[in-house]
Each structure stands twice: as C-alpha cells, then as structure tokens.
Amino acid sequence: MGVSFLLGTNVLSELLKPRVDPGVVRRFSRDGNDCAIASVVWHELLCGALRAPSVGRGEMLVRAYRDIVIGSGMQILPYDETAATWHARERARLLGLGRPQPYPDSQIAAIAATRNLTLVTRNTRDFECFDGLRLENWFEAGKD
C-alpha cells in the first residue's frame, strides 16, 4: 500500500511517552505502514533528542526514533524542488496576507501538499492557513 500520511513531530514524540495518547496508539497501529515523515521532522526529532539534559538520554531517544522510523521502513521524504516551489508560492501568498508562518512548518506542509499526503499533527491550527493541505489530529481520535 502507498503512503497516505505524513506524521508531524509531535506524533512521533508522543510514541515515546510513558503514557501514549490512546488515539495515537490506535491510529498508528492501524495506519503505521501507510506513514512517512518529512526530512524536516527527522531533523526536529534528532535535534531535540541531542539537546536532552543528559547524553545518555539523548542517545536513547535517537535510538528509539531510529527504531520507530528506520526500523519500520518508514520513508523520510525530502524537501525537494517541487516542495520548495510550492513553499515559495504559498509563503508569498501568506506574507501578502500578513500571515507569516514558521519556516519548518511551511516546509513540512509543502512536503505533504506536493505528495498529496494528509499531515497528521496535534497542532492542526498551525497548518490550517495552507491552501489544499489535508490535516488529521490522531490525538482527537482518542476521544471517540
């Protein structure tokens, strides 16, 4: 089956918490094989892990993220020319409206939009301004 979902940073970091949100567990168990992450998300995960208060904790987090992403065969999708072009157009549109967006969020949105993927994030409000971007919040799925 092809990739349908692009997971945001907060979804992957949730999977390492002692008490994982039940909606995230349910959806990741069901749809994990249809997921990818953006190279930008991979950077955010590793940078956050490497800034952990102790080296041991940081190394443990890096290993855990590698197990989840690399170990499962999940694709890490690049910020390529197509995404950069979409990003430039969308950024110009939003700047013209006086609504600048964080650069990493815009890159993640571009990767999802240009590959026709649904972006999965807890922070859907941060991404609602992007034209044509499909969003899902798996955290809300736990409230069924």
Structural summary, described in words:
The protein is an alpha/beta fold. It has a single domain (5-143), classed as Rossmann fold (3-Layer(aba) Sandwich), CATH 3.40.50. The chain is 49% helix and 11% strand. It has six helices and five strands. It has a five-stranded parallel beta sheet with strand order 3-2-1-4-5.
Summarize the structure.
The chain is 49% helix and 11% strand. It is α/β, with parallel strands linked by helices and 144 residues long.
The proportion of residues forming helix, as a percent range, comes to: 40-55%
Order of helices and strands: EHHEHHEHHEE
In CATH terms, what is the fold-level topology?
Rossmann fold
Oligomer: single chain
Helix and strand content put the structural class at: alpha/beta
Strand order of the largest sheet: 3-2-1-4-5
Question: What is Rg?
Answer: 15 Å
Q: Report the CATH superfamily.
A: 5'-nuclease
3D shape: globular
Distance between the termini: 26 Å
Counting DSSP H or I runs of 4 or more residues, the number of helices is: 6
Largest sheet: 5 strands, parallel
User: Strand content of the residues, in percent?
Assistant: 5-15%
